[in-house]
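During the reporting period the student researcher (J.K.) took over the structure-prediction task from the postdoctoral fellow and processed the backlog of single-chain submissions. One of the processed entries is reproduced below for the supervisory committee.
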Amino acid sequence: MGEGRSLGGGCLCGALRYELMQDGAEVVDYCHCGACRKASGAPVSAWAQVAPARFRVTAGAATGFAASAEATRWFCGACGSPVYMTDAQGKSVGVTLGTLDEPDAVSPTVHGWYGARLKWFCIADGLPRFLESPPYDL
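J.K. obtained the following structure tokens:
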């Protein structure tokens, strides 16, 4: 999986486990889009996107849901935890930060889809905000 720092994570019940290799090139952001809200049940989702070669499932098997023509969302079939997302072109794997064993190991650097944010959700940080997808999104 290359060089870098190995980060482990998994679902709520522990049946699905993964490892990603952090190298500093990953995109780490908040996503305010409606699809992320529906999939997570939360007002915003936080993601680390890595190249597919830097991610692997180490235990269990994820269940996929084709959320759109561009994206498949993967979750634990036992407990339902949303764990990661892949794109149709195979460019990246987006891992939900809340499923990391050490969620403080990475921090979002921008807000994506800020134009779709919920008006009542107060954001007090000074991070850059993009009305739609950040321009460097994988």
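The committee noted the following: The first helix runs from residue 34 to 40.
J.K. will present the remaining backlog at the next meeting.
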